[in-house]
Structures are given as C-alpha cells and as structure tokens.
Amino acid sequence: MKRIYLTLISVSALLGNPVFAGTPAEGTGAYFALHGGANVYQNFDDSFSRGDKELHLDHNVSGYGGIKLGYIFGTGTYRYAVEEDMFYNGISTSAHVDENGREVAQSSNHIRSGAFLTNFLLRFALNQFQPYLGAGIGAYYAKTQSGDVIINGRTFETVGGRSSGSLAWDGVAGADYYWTPDISTFVEYHYLGYVALDVGDGSHKFGQNLVGAGVRFRFCIPG
User: I want to staple 117 with a disulfide (CB 3.0 to 4.6 A). Which of 71, 138, 167, 181 is the partner?
Assistant: First the structure.
C-alpha cells in the first residue's frame, strides 16, 4: 500500500511539472522573437479617371521579416505586453492606364521599406495556448528601386532612389503556443498603415494585410 501511495505522489509531481502542463510563468517576462510572412493584400488610396483615361493601381503580394523585443507583465489570465517590432517590408507595385477600355501603358516597381513600431498588447493566458490582440504606432522609411514602364509595347526604365518616411501604425492579432515555459511558436496578423507614402508619384495612404509566423524566446534580464 505504501508503494502504491508513493507511486501516486510521483505521478502527480510529474503531471504538475511545467514541461507537461501550463504554468502561470509561461511567457511572462522579457522575450526576443523572429518572425516573417507575406503581405497578402495591399491597397493604395487612389485609382482614378481623367477624361477617357483611367489609372488603376494594382494589388501585389510581397514578403516581410524582422525581429521583436518585448516584455509580458503579470501571471494571471489577462496579461499586458509592450514590444518593439522592427521589420523589413518589401512592397511590389504595379499600375496600368486604360484609354477607352484599352490598356495603353503599364508600370512596375519595388519599394524597400523598414517599419519600426511600438505595439501594446492584451494577452489571454490559457495554459500553453495564449491568443492576443493590440495596436501600435511608430514610423517607416521607404525607398524605390528602378522599375519598368511599358507604353504602347515599348519598355522604358524609370529612375530609382526616391525615398519617403513618415508615421506608421498597425493593428495586431495573433496566438502563441508554448512548447516550454520559455519557447513558443506563433501566428500573427497585422493591418499595417503607412501615412503619406511619397516615392515620386504623389502622397498616398497605404495599407497592407500581413500574415506571418514566428518563434518567441523568453530570456532573463540581469538584475
């Protein structure tokens, strides 16, 4: 009987170990993360017509990738977090001009940009599974490369090197799964907005829908 009792105590201790079950400490504290993905839909604010000519700015898919540094406060079900989110964001652009329903010109370009955001998050600690949402504000810097313009079948190369920088903001939703108290994988959605994006063809409000994933590592801050 004593042996059975000791066995039950040992099993209970194992089941209570953080490796096998969620603990209040999972995710709490400072963290570093790597993340990346694709901007699956992007939009400028102005496709317009003038007389019999219509300009259409097109949606294109591009990629992004970067790092996060942050801190999660508390050990309860509801936890607050603040993070610095810094990432490279490629923007592929294209446009075409139609005249009387016929395409007469088209262009393509690539914009290299960097986004630097401070995000404020509310996290829901459901053991290993921890969804979260929030919003952030910061800045961006963008610069164009050379691109091509095709007019009536003839191709011309544009001059790159134009740059722009201004306010950036985002809305964030995601979820972590903690494999250990210190390591998780996560999926994440951003709506990312660039204000006054001007790289040579006028100032635009610009929005992107970013979908990505990453790995988060908790670490100790020396006291």
Answer: 138
